[in-house]
Amino acid sequence: MSEAASTRTPVALLPSLAPLLRSWLPRQRWFAGKGRPVTALSLVSATELLPLTGRGPGLLHLLVDIARPATGTDAGTGTDTETETGTGTAAGRKPPPGDCYQLLLGVRRTLPPHLAPALIGRPGEGPLAGRTVYEGLVDPRLAGLLWERLRTPGTLGPLRFDRYDRAPAVPGGLSARPLGAEQSNTSLVYGDAFILKLFRRVQPGPHPDLELPLALARAGCGRVPAPVAWWESTAPQPYTLGVLQPYLRGSHDGWRLALEALAAGAPFTEEARALGRVTAEVHTALADALPTVALSAQRTDRLVEAMNRRLEEAARAVPALLPYVPRLRRAFDTVADLARDGRGLRAQRIHGDLHLGQTLRGGAPHADDHWSVIDFEGEPARPLAERRRPQPPVRDVAGMLRSFDYAARSHQPWDPGWAERCRAAYCEGYAEGSGADPRGEPELLRAYETDKAVYEALYEARHRPDWLPVPMAAIDRLATALP
Predict the structure, then answer these.
(1) Pick from 191, 173, 177: which is nearest to 246 by CA?
(2) Less Cβ around it within 10 Å: N or C end of the chain?
(3) pLDDT-based confidence at 97, cuts 50/70/90?
């Protein structure tokens, strides 16, 4: 396939797809704009991974910018036709900031019955008129084509496919099956040997879910599956689009194992201690592989200001937080006091969203007790630049401590002692692995636990009100423990 053929971008392509995408996108699990109308769509790039000509299926790779609803005088103006052609905004107006999404669209004359659930629609005009457009990743033939592209490094228009130079050879002909549990991405498992994660909402710059595992692999850390291959967009801006890693077949995530222990009335302290050691091992490897920084008093003040700002915003949305605000603010301000007293904070690259569900046990021969850490993308809702910023390692520790609390409260009757024992064992394991017990800096650990619980309270109030008592109980505990 020639590059010229692979990168055709008819001017009428996006306008013909726009009505279908406006209806289809808000229904996808990974679409971040649920509840908001899709106003304007702007074409960032289009690449034919498999030509759309001929009798067989075609595969079209799109990067599409989805504008957020306009505000003020722009509200209610509807869709901008010129934006949908990819030529800009009418009258030179700058569109509202949007989100860029990666789409892989299959194109066929007719859709076989087994692919009917993947239907997006049938354009009534434009270059795809009379054909059927569908989610291409559920089509085994198209998923196989993507696999072959990943096996062969090279470029195709604005897309670049690359491989880790120390990765083992990748076999051909592996069948694919999609995983259905992810919220913000899409993953395909190939032959129960590899897993491909496709990032749906993409942002310019290196992606931490490639950057950090690659750095850890080159540093010899075996706790994180090493990237095998990946692909990126090189124009008009660099985007990381997907990462291929070994699939840890037969492994079980820490959340599932914790719930099974609770259901059986069994302790989980040895597992928690092992997880603490693993977290310390990963943190140590990241600190060795990537730069660390000492946070000045000024930068610490900004960190504390951000915590206080998040608290105030959450309290406006969750009235149950209001009585706790003065004490919780004091928990944050104490960290700023430490910096002013000369007890500076060390910051480094961290996981960024560590919890039991981001850990796997097993998945390797004769390694039933082997733990791995996965999913280094951080909190997907946060800007990429923020997720790549060095942070105190205790933030990861706080995330795992909160996860033990969530596990305990998801089981009835609630056993607060189970969570406390796990939390203590995890910190002990972390001290064994790093030489420093996170409980040795109680002010810092309390601040990050509080910040995480405030985030949880806002999330639960918006999405799962029945779960709001879980973070509220933690907030009550943390506020009461303040001197």
Answers:
(1) 191
(2) C
(3) low
